[in-house]
Amino acid sequence: MSATKKPLTQHIRTDGEMIGFQEYIQLGGYQAVQKAKQMAPQDVTKLVSDSGLGGRGGAGFSTGFKMSAVPMGDDASKTKYLICNADEMEPGTFKDRLLLECHPHQLIEGMMISAHAIQATVAYIFVRGEYKLSIQRLEHAVQEAYAQGLLGQGLEMYVHASAGRYICGEETALLNALEGKRATPRAKPPFPQTVGLWGKPTLVNNVETLSCLPHIVNHGAEWFKSLSKTADAGTKLYGLSGHVNNPGLFELPMGTTARELIEVHAGGMKDGRKFRALLPGGASTDFWLEDKLDVPMDFSSTAKIRTRMGTGTIIILDDKTCPVGMLLSLERFFKQESCGWCTPCRDGLTWVEKILQAFENGEGREEDIEQLERHARLLGPGSTFCALAPGAASPLGTGMKYFKEEFLKHIDEKRCPYANHLH
Amino acid sequence: MPTIFIDNKPYEVKEGQNVLHAAVSHGLNLPYFCWHPALGSVGSCRQCAVQCFKDENDTQGRMVMSCMTPATEGSRFSIEHPNAKSFRADVIEWMMINHPHDCPVCDEGGECHLQDMTVMTGHNKRRYRFKKRTFKNQNLGPNIHHEMNRCITCYRCVRFYRDVAGGEDLHAFSSADNAYFGRFEDGALESEFSGNLVEVCPTGVFTDKIFRASYTRKWDLQTAPSICQQCSLGCNMSPGERLGKIRRIQNRFNPDINGYFLCDKGRFGHQWVNNTPLPTKPISEITWPLNDDKSQVIGIASPKASLEANYALRKLVGAENFYDAQPKGDYLLAERVLEILEQYPETASVEDVRQADLVLVLGEDLTKTAPMLALAIRQNLYRHWQEKADKSKIPAWDDLAVRNAEHELPDVLYMVHNAPTKLDGLVSQRMSLDFEQISDWIPRIRAAKNPVIIAGTSLKSRPLIDLSKELRALAPQAKLCYVLPEVNSMGLALLKPKSLSDLKSPGVEAISLEPSLKSDVMAKVGDFALIDAFESELSKRAAIAFGCASFAESTGTVINNEGRAQRYYSVFERENKRPESWRILRDLGGFSWQNIDELCGDMGREFPVFEPFFAKAHHADFRVHGERISRQTLVASGRTAVNTHLSMHEPTPRVDQDSPLAYSMEGYHGDMPPDLASSYWRPGWNSVQALNALSHAPSGVKLLRRRSV
Q1: pTM (2 decimals)?
Q2: Which domains does chain A have, with CATH numbers?
């Protein structure tokens, strides 16, 4: 495969069909895994560490470091698992779907490389249940890989369709779901790398993360770093949805700004709509106002200003859409998807949703604003069992800060002031 | 023992404890829900938040869940820190969003952990202004009432029922604020341990249906320490009475035996105490229908009656005429068991079964014959998981981490049995009753550090009992555990009765004691007198029937399967009080015992084996700070009002001649010896959770000694 600026997506077909095995081979596929297998497992891990690849599920944590936490050597368990987290259910996020539907062999190859690095013998692709086409194509691709003898010799791979909860995207809840238990997260420590699926060392990585591995092996760590505009390496699949002229996915250098994404790649706001705010990466990130449009969208630049890029798939809020309605829609989702394990998330989000619904119905009260602000504080990191509620608190907290006027208008007018908003 | 600092005060804590367990053990008021001393920590409810500090200079700290935080040497926490304190009030507020405001009419009210914790956090004003979510309840059978609207989603019920007790028909359904705990469809709960849900649930979702049918408030129940009468293990329990009826039974903690739990037989099998009592008359008014010379009358002893009753009968008829009515085979088995135990007196308690590294079960279906041993085996396997997980640095209390880390069945349970049992899924190795291959197991038994060999009389198999002895002879470190038929089978065996099958003179007159006899046994004897608590077929056939007090109305000693003597105390007195069976026998024999201590004095001299218990037992004159121990709570209500239809004067409580307990709310209420404690209470802790800060010492005295040759 030739080095390129868009390694993940350059070959994706425009007719919507997947890149099949033969086509992938013609494009130079499965050469990286051959190359990786000639390397010592630790060297593959080191290469990934050196490349600066960060988890594309939204946390941005160093993939190489995560790999290096898997016990290696003779004392380590002989059974180890590699899991691809393809449970893409973050609202507004649809980047993994493209890779799953159109480029499954790239993912399989990435998984084979990772499995070699941690010496895993069994791999699962845990796919969102609604991604029917992804499941179908992944199964086809996995069968092709078995037929070609790529799988089945030291590495078994299974496609597992999720029974469908957002929380299964949390890696430990995913493990419970895969074991057939209730999909509630697990407390850490112990971390999955040491005590994971069925108690064995387990590495869980996102689709986009794993899809980067063949390219890193082929072209090296320095090349991968050079793809980026900033300190965080690689390209990123950015997405845009909302009232822009050209919503969609764009593979661009890591660190591309939101302004460039909106104005250049998404063709600007639709006529008659003005930009008001955006959620940078799925629903569980802070609202950004215009002032953050020039912040490089990567993990470390956003961390510096105490916010998060998340999955990098932007949801735009324009001036004709009711922010309260948008918050209601988001919080209703989080409330519904709470696993019900810990109290703040289970009952706190219920309260939040009920209040936002009251605003929507024109029944909001002034003391409700205080309750929403209190919940945005209380559901933050440290008080809940996992990151779901803090994720829900991110748009709520910033929403309360930026759109308080809108809430007051709802109270004053005893109705939603936006006539044509959609939920 | 590490020292930790809570609000700048040092506390010594047990090695390997979490901060919550340490704090509540020291009696600190730190609220919690999902944690339970026997279930460990899962960190779900978020109620036990405390502030954690890096060192003494750190004033800000960060909030942590105390149940998920190890109490390591020198670590510093604050319960009172405003951040954690207000968060705990917030958590209660969330819990109460959907909780019914029916405390005054709720059957859990007054012993509700949720109620206690709500008061403790100070949450008292409702800010949530929306509709509560409601659930449909299920019919969970005759024992447990289901009231899902009260649920606060602490997950304790499923964690006990499924993870600890191995039940499969109670689930957590749905998610978010709709999480539902119940069965797939209506129907009786299948687990033998379902009754523990009543005590495990921190609020009123699972309540005692039998209690509910004749409900009274916890504080109006008169209780006394008692011993379960349903099997030979002698679990410690606390029956509660009001207005002459036993209303319910709750667990009484004994770490050596039942720990925190009871089986359903023990918890729910008590309504027979409320059957029609057999009436009685003073001996002076009775015309004795049998031979006046009592030495011409045989005595038929009972393994269900107290040691005192059996001894009094033996004294009355003489050792020559003292018979055990079990079929010959059963009698010989009991004799054999005692013979073996006199050679190998190191018996295993239920706790020993929990701690063993190998458990051999020879022919007993424990879930049926001694359910708490079956539970102990499940607890044992989990303990093995905990030890294994410790090597991956997972603390023993981190329940879900232990269960997620360990999946392999520990090599612990070896079983000889033909029929399916409920423990089959836990068995490492199994062979049939002809046990030809038993020699294969011998190296494993010899290699074990603290193995327990469980056998019993339920299959009526001498070869199984002999096998247990042979295995014990090969493994001196092993402890034996025999499951016997009745609560006092061991006690009766120690009194050395003869077998009724060997009776030389059929048709002889007899006195029979609280019999569990089938009528055909009585066909061997002629006219008989009967001493029993309740009317029965047999009582109608008896030449004379004496009504005696049941275990709930009398004080007596029973000896469990391990040879542990324990005393149960009279819980209440009926309106028409009937004497204890030993008092009837005393009067028939003209003996002089004024109270149980005098009788036991004689018994101890005659049977020195019992002496260590009688020496240690609390005599009737035992007092704490000069006071008797109260059977009633400090707030028992209606003591004058309930009897106004009879008399407007408050009746004087009768003096209990046999125990240091008082039938009164007056008396001592504080910390007391564990064998005299029947209810748990501390200020602010009205539920069974008060136990966490109280004494955890075992009680009872193990009597078996090696027979001197």
Answers
A1: 0.96
A2: 21-226 (3.40.50.11540), 235-318 (3.10.20.600), 323-413 (1.20.1440.230)
